[in-house]
Amino acid sequence: MDKNAWKDQGSCVNYDVNLFFDTYEENEKIRPAIEKLCSECPVARTCFAVGISQKEYGIWGGIYLEKGKISREFGKHRNKEDWAQTWKYLTTDK
């Protein structure tokens, strides 16, 4: 089985990949929509785990990473409730 097959199940599969990298970085107004898409994704947990383990940049599982670490710069627009919801969908079974 292809170790990247999970990507085909992602809510983002038909979106321009730049939305999760350059566009997210450059356009703060679009960030909540991208995060919402990820929060409803059936493979968000796997995506986040891959982003962390492979030290990726960009949105992985709804969180912007830099070298596999949560970016303070691109996460500062979120409040405590946003973060609580994010951790909930990344850590609980659906």
What is the oligomeric state here? single chain
Strand content: 5-15%
Tell me the distance between the termini. 24 Å
Question: What's the domain count?
Answer: 1
Low-confidence runs of at least 5 consecutive residues: none
What does the overall shape look like?
globular
Which sequence of SSEs, written as H and E, runs from N to C?
HHHEEEH
SS class = alpha+beta
* Biggest sheet overview: 3 strands, antiparallel
Within the largest sheet, what's the order of strands?
A: 1-2-3
What percent of the residues sit in helical stretches (DSSP H or I)? 25-40%
Instruction: List how many beta strands DSSP finds.
Output: 3
Indicate the radius of gyration in whole angstroms. Answer: 12 Å
Q: Helix segment count?
A: 4
Mean pLDDT: 93
Q: Secondary-structure map with pairings?
A:
Blueprint: H1 22-26, H2 31-39, H3 44-53, E1 58-60, E2 63-66, E3 69-70, H4 80-91
Give a short synopsis of this structure.
Helices cover 38% and strands 10% of the residues. With 94 residues, it is an alpha+beta fold.
